[in-house]
Amino acid sequence: MSNNHLQLPSDQDSSGRTLGAEELENLAAALRSGTLTSTKGTFVSQFEKDFASQLGARHGHACSSGTAAIHTAVAAINPDPGDEIITTPITDMGGLTPIIYQGAIPVFADVDPQTCNVTARTIEARISERTKAIVVTHLFGNPCNMGPIMELANAHHIPVIEDCAQSFLTSYNDRYVGTLGTIGCFSLQQGKHITTGEGGVVVTDDEALARRMFLFINKAWGYGDANADHYFVAPNYRMSELQGAVALAQLQKLEWIVTNRVRTADALTSELRGLAGVETPVVTEGAVHTYWKYCLRVDATVIEGGAVGLGAKLREKGIACAPRYIQKPAFSCQVFRDQVTFGDSHWPFTLARPEAVNYDKSLFPGTFEALRDVLVLPWNELYGPEHVDYIAEAVRTSAGELTKTEATAQTLS
Asked: Does residue 389 lie in a domain region?
């Protein structure tokens, strides 16, 4: 990398993370206590209370990862084998494999190509008599359009699980995501708004679901019950006190983290607005986007090579961007394509309706358009004006170098 390139803070190390004295102080206290299990410690339980309170949720339970959070939510809904759970094809596999582990069938809804999020219209097309739940993923920090989605879900009496792994303190019509549906799921993985390396949280207002999620995280052992037992099959998904100590300190910084991400992202949007062939993030109406990442849409009819071409230019300038976000829709991955599950059984796909596992490209035009055009820029809370200016200039310069002349565009069309 040239010495002329500005080194951007990275969320993969201390340059882009807020880890510091407060986390060390909590970790030292946890170690001095000698109690590192959350069943007897205090840090995880305090984090759970404070996290739920900040969102305005009645119940919160911490767990070992964002994947564990989704698994816990799905298990609380308690699908029967062969039940269907509608979800998105633009997501991490950690949001999908828990559905399979619970014996349910992930049914993919198409997305809005401008936001990469599912919509009420695309979800409605996938509802069947077997639909047990809907998972909505608020991608990149921008919420799904939850009003119509909740209206649809309520009309069909279908619970909604919100995947908020990338959307801390994201709001929709003045309510935080995670509290709009039935259960909210969060991730504390390395690159999220706040981190414990790995970790997760589930929140809900439903007391019965909260109880079942607590049990599921704890091997279904009824801690505190008069005649405790292991009530059903469940893993150990507990968060340790060491993670809880870090989480509690991180949570106290979350509002500042989000405020700074939004401020700098808005500044970049202002600098890039109107740039030919490059569209800045489309924010859901009535929402506050909290920018896990900053996403551009690149028009390949204007920019030579589209998102891939622009991304290559930006990487030459030290901006670690990701064209397409994920290389292919989730349903194109081998686990779905070849139904690689438990041994050679292909279960639970053996229970699926043919329509539920039809991944024909024609059913997902928005998904393929979204992945074709999106360019994901890195973002974190320690970006300052100099980083925004550097990225803006790099995008403008690179886009200018790749902008097709009118004659070229006509020749290629």
From this structure: yes
Same domain, 151 and 294: no
Give the chain's mean pLDDT.
96
DSSP state of 180: S
55: domain CATH number is 3.40.640.10
pLDDT at 122 > cutoff 80 = yes
Listed in sequence order, the residues at least 6 apart from 393 whose beta carbon sits closer than 8 Å to its beta carbon are: none
**Based on the number of CB atoms within 10 Å of its own CB, is 156 exposed (0-12), middle (13-18) or buried (19 or more)?**
exposed
Indicate whether this model's pTM tops 0.85.
Answer: yes
């996938």: which residue's tokens?
A: 126
Check which CATH number belongs to the domain holding 300 and give it: 3.90.1150.10
Regarding whether 172 and 64 lie in a shared domain, the answer is yes
Q: In whole angstroms, what is the distance from residue 229 CA to residue 73 CA? A: 21
Residues 6+ apart with CB under 8 A from 405: none
Strands (E), 226-324: 278-279, 287-288, 294-298, 322-323
Rounded Cα distance between 60 and 50, Å, is 9
The whole-number pLDDT of residue 2 equals 47
- Predicted local distance difference test score (pLDDT) of residue 102: 98
CA angle, residues 271, 366, 188, in degrees to nearest 5: 65
Domain extent, residue 406, equals 254-325+369-412
Question: Counting Cβ atoms within 10 Å, is residue 219 exposed (0-12), middle (13-18) or buried (19+)?
Answer: middle
Q: Identify the residue whose tokens are 């984090």.
A: 47
Helix/strand/coil (H/E/C) assignment for every residue in 45-59: HHHHHHHHHHHCCCE
The string of pLDDT tens digits covering residues 196-209 is 999 999 999 999 99
Tell me the C-alpha distance between 69 and 168, whole Å: 14
Q: Could you give the angle at which helices 21-33 and 241-251 cross, rounded to 10 degrees? A: 150
Q: Tell whether 295 and 174 lie within a shared domain.
A: no
* Distance in angstroms (rounded) separating the CA atoms of residues 374 and 278: 10
Phi (first) and psi of residue 254, to 5 degrees: -60, -45
Are residues 269 and 401 both part of a single domain? yes
What is the dihedral sign for C-alpha 410, 411, 412, 413?
positive
